[in-house]
Structures are given as C-alpha cells and as structure tokens.
Design brief:
The chain is mainly beta and 127 residues long. It has two domains: 48 residues; 67 residues. Helix content is 7%, strand content 53%. It has one helix and 13 strands; from the N terminus they run E-E-E-E-E-E-E-H-E-E-E-E-E-E. A six-stranded antiparallel sheet has the order 7-12-8-9-10-11. The chain has a five-stranded antiparallel sheet with strand order 4-3-2-1-5, with no helix packed on it. A hairpin with a 3-residue loop joins strand 9 and strand 10.
C-alpha cells in the first residue's frame, strides 16, 4: 500500500493505469488506485509493476551567478558541477552553504566564487 504502481489491463487496448495503491480488496477482488479512487477488478489485471517516477538530472545546466541561485542550490540540494578554468573540480557535488565570496561543498571544501564556475543541473521527474 502507498506505492506508485502501473497496472496493465487485459483489454484489447492493454490499458495502462498508474497511481498509488490505496487498497487491495480480496473480498471484492479489486484494487483501488489514487488519485481518483480508480477501481480495477482483479480479473482485468494482466500485470502490476512498480512505477518508476524517480527524478533524474536534467541534461542542460546553467551557471549560478546570483545569490538567490546559490540559496536555491543549497536549499534544494541540487547537483552542481564545479569548474576552475577548463578543469572539472567537482562533479555531482552538493552545496551546503555560501556567503558573499565563498561556497562550501558537502565534502567540507570551501571554494572562492570568483575563482570557480558553478553549474547546476536541476532535477526533473518523469511525467
């Protein structure tokens, strides 16, 4: 219960229904998915599998330049690449703090903002 699932049904269109498993009713032989209280009788179920809606890193990043962007990267624990010139200093690192001149990474390393380029890649979920 409470897990995201995908249910493929035994109809001519092989309908795929996704939702959170709310209940498994063995008496009435049906499952209930939410949202919407969707009821699917057991005899119509061809396959049930976990629905993978784990977020993934966006392929496009942007350079963090403003204080609010650093605030958001810290708050949302965004994945950040750190460059010093043409050298990749850190890959998929998390920022834990920043001030006017420096940034602190999750590994404790403090880097100067004017010497490094910070590129954030936001998370995107599957629709």
């Amino acid at each position: 219960m409470g897990r995201r699932i995908a249910v493929q049904q035994r109809d001519k269109d092989k309908t795929l229904t996704e939702g959170v498993l709310k209940s498994w009713d063995t008496v009435q032989e049906r499952m209930i998915l939410s949202p919407g209280e969707v009821s699917i009788p057991f005899h119509l179920v061809a396959k049930v599998e976990p629905s993978d809606h784990a977020p993934a890193l966006n392929g496009i990043g942007y350079i963090i330049q403003h204080s609010i962007q650093f605030d958001n990267a810290v708050y949302f624990r965004s994945s950040v690449m750190v460059w010093k010139g043409d050298t990749l200093t850190a890959y998929q690192e998390t920022l834990t703090a920043h001030d006017r001149d420096t940034v602190t990474l999750s590994n404790g390393l403090r880097l100067r903002k004017d010497e490094h380029c910070f590129v954030v890649r936001s998370l995107r979920g599957k629709a």
